[in-house]
Model the fold of this input.
Amino acid sequence: MRGLVAVGCLAALLAVNVWAGEQASKGNATNGQAIYARNCLPCHGAALDGHGPNAAGLVRPPANFLDKRSRKKTDFELEITIKQGQLYTDMHRWDDTLSDAQIRDVVAYIRATAPHLID
Done:
C-alpha cells in the first residue's frame, strides 16, 4: 500500500512540475509578432502560410504554420527547430540571434494564430 501511495505522490509531483514547466515556457505573443515580422515573415509569410516574399526562391518551401502537420507539433518541437534550424532546408538556426525568451515569444505568436492540434 505504501508503494502505491509513494507512486501516486510521485505522479502528482511530476504532473505539477510538467505544468509549471509548460507555464514557464509560454511567451508573449505581442512581442513574438514583432520578432516574427522582422525575422520569419520573409520566408513564412505575413499569414504564416509559408508564402513569404522570399519563399519562391527556396529549395524547399517554408513551413505553413496553418497546416495540420505544423499545428500538431508541440511548442517544444517548434522551439527546437527555431533554435537549431532544419537540416537540408533554408531554415537556419536562430539561437545565435534570438534569446530563449524571444524564441518562446515567436512560438506564442504562432500558437495565437495557429493553435496546437492534439490528436
Residues 28-113 form a domain with the Cytochrome Bc1 Complex; Chain D, domain 2 fold (CATH 1.10.760.10). The chain has one domain: 28-113.
